[in-house]
Amino acid sequence: MKTIIVIGASGNIGKAAIKGLGKHKVITASRSGKGCDYQVDITDKTSIAALYKAVGKFDAVISAAGHCEYAPFESMTDDQWQATIQSKLVGQMNVVKVGLDHIENGGSFTLISGILNIKPMPLAIADATTSGAIDTFVKCVAFELPRGIRINAVNPTVIEEAWEMYGEMMPGYQPVPGALVGKAFERSVDSFITGQVIFVDA
Amino acid sequence: MKTIIVIGASGNIGKAAIKGLGKHKVITASRSGKGCDYQVDITDKTSIAALYKAVGKFDAVISAAGHCEYAPFESMTDDQWQATIQSKLVGQMNVVKVGLDHIENGGSFTLISGILNIKPMPLAIADATTSGAIDTFVKCVAFELPRGIRINAVNPTVIEEAWEMYGEMMPGYQPVPGALVGKAFERSVDSFITGQVIFVDA
């Protein structure tokens, strides 16, 4: 049994991740902290460090967090770009950077990207660009991680549990069950793979 | 004959780009402005807009600019990440964003990424991550550009002209002639392709 911290645990993807981790001890965190064990803001390295210190020993970190702004490229503001980059990209990288000081030997990080970098859609240029950055980051940084620590990304399409919210803006996308995305997180945590982007699409 | 603005014209890749543009009118710009027609700072949208206004009519923009910091992931500082992201990623996106207000119908943008997102190497995680973001950005934003405007990225390996500077940190990489990278920029400018990453590797 591993101890796994799930950041963004109250979101749809976080809940999907937890579905794949039934045999482990899961510790939950989110930006609001509501219904979770801990509150954490991934745009703040001090907040991330405080979470890790509070948990103590852990074997895996799953990030299902990262705020994205949606707008056409021509009207997306500097603030919208920065909010997306500092959360979904820099925030998730900091989850890893700070986590390296705390995670057990042989531990793993699993970050979240999203299928829009592979299947582009209107309004989603910031999501797509940062997803592409996260996929690349994971594939390249894996070679640098010490102590047998692994890193992967899960890159899912929209899940059935979120279809009501996103379906209208995603014509022609086939949602998948959250449980299938949970399998991807489980494989990242419990397999030996590293530097991989695990696509979950229909 | 097209009028083409080359940003980063005094760098090795900028010079390589110009080699492919012999039949066009080339206007040069760089951060220092030394030996170029104009000075421009791509991290400053006001500076980019001033360049475009000064040039007036133009058909293509080539960005061979973007500062990257090099360090191991574990020791790369927040400032190093931000310097790289705000220049190579956000700076180049702003070259496009601001450029859309000025470029001729049917014009083109060509951005620069770099092979380290495909062939990772020590110290280069920030370069690789932002290169992956640029490649993704180009592939996705192409569908949004108005007035027949195209966008591509050139993703080169190290060029022979830069081998003396980078060769020692790149064992096992085969440099290519700058003229071959110039061909890639020429194809982006003079063909009909859009949303493409043009890899130049040996």
From TrEMBL, chains A, B:
Domain of life: Bacteria
Protein name, per record: Short chain dehydrogenase
Gene3D superfamilies per record: NAD(P)-binding Rossmann-like Domain (3.40.50.720)
Organism: Pandoraea horticolens
Pfam families (alphabetical): adh_short_C2
GO MF annotation, one: oxidoreductase activity
Alphabetized UniProt keyword annotations: Oxidoreductase
Family stated for the protein in its record: Belongs to the short-chain dehydrogenases/reductases (SDR) family.
